[in-house]
Amino acid sequence: QLLGTHEVDRVAPARRAHAELFGLSPTLSFDQDCDSDWPGVLGPIRASMEAETNLFIERTVFDGAGSLTALLTDNHGYMSDDTAVIYGDDVVELSGPKVQHEYAMIQQSGGSKNTITMYPVEFPANQRAGLLTLPSVLAVGSYAVHPAPILRGKRLLERLACQTFGSPPPGAEAAIPADTTEGTNRERTEIATSAAVCASCHQSLNPPGFAFENYDAFGRWRADDNGIAVDASGSFTLDNGETFTFTDGVELAYQMAQSEQVKNCYVEHWASYAVGYPLEEHQETLSELQSQFQSDDDVLDLLVAIATSDLFRYLNGPGVTP
Prior knowledge:
Elements lengths: L14 H4 L18 H26 L5 H6 L2 E4 L4 H4 L4 E2 L5 E9 L2 E13 L12 H6 L8 H12 L24 H8 L3 H15 L13 E2 L2 E2 L4 E4 L5 E4 L2 H9 L2 H16 L8 H13 L2 H9 L2 H4 L9
Antiparallel strand pairs: 1-4, 2-4, 3-4, 5-6, 7-8
Helix pairs in contact: 6-8, 10-11, 10-12, 11-12
């Protein structure tokens, strides 16, 4: 819920741009009037991405370091044979129990129940760092052909740093960079958001999105975009004055794991979820929970602290009778 990865069951990278990665032709034969192959590729990948995300969170919190830092930086996780091509050849399979994940999908108007085998792995530390580099998060923040740095940046700032943005100006969607192969995705995005009316928001939105330009619409790591070396560097400043300057998404993930505003936002999300209504930013009990989490960075301790706090035990929120 925090990063919207439940939407991964609707991601739909385009066959014309990505089919060859999976051994398929980018185009259909003339005698075909329906594409049954590509949905058959996407179904297991979506299911695997979702399972990988849930397993990573579960194992990191309950069996691993159990910290927000680990959730944002750990390069261990799970993958399946269906997503192996996304992660590449540098992944190391680890010893340990495999997990059988069951899922259902519809193809050619028929339903089926399937099982994916998930196995523990270690990803290259220069390519993967926690939640923000999981394919589920990256694929949800993409268009059919190219990544969507604006969507990625907005999700990161709103959901991890609790920053808010106003509505885009009328007609903004019409300026979305075209799915062309001219230049780089970053260059096209910079041109599309260069107008003065866009600059006030996009000087904050674009940089954290550009940090993940090393990942395509599937979340697959890439060094080049259209034959040009990816530039994933950038800098931006949060509302509380914290500035992040980075060369890529992995470096940004490590910086965000140490951010005071990110930690406070994480506590606010959990506390709001627990009590069932949005909390005021500077509520006294919330501030106490945030102060404690700043010092120990322990997710399970945070959940216990919320459950035993007056904030949770004596609900007195909107529509709640004391």
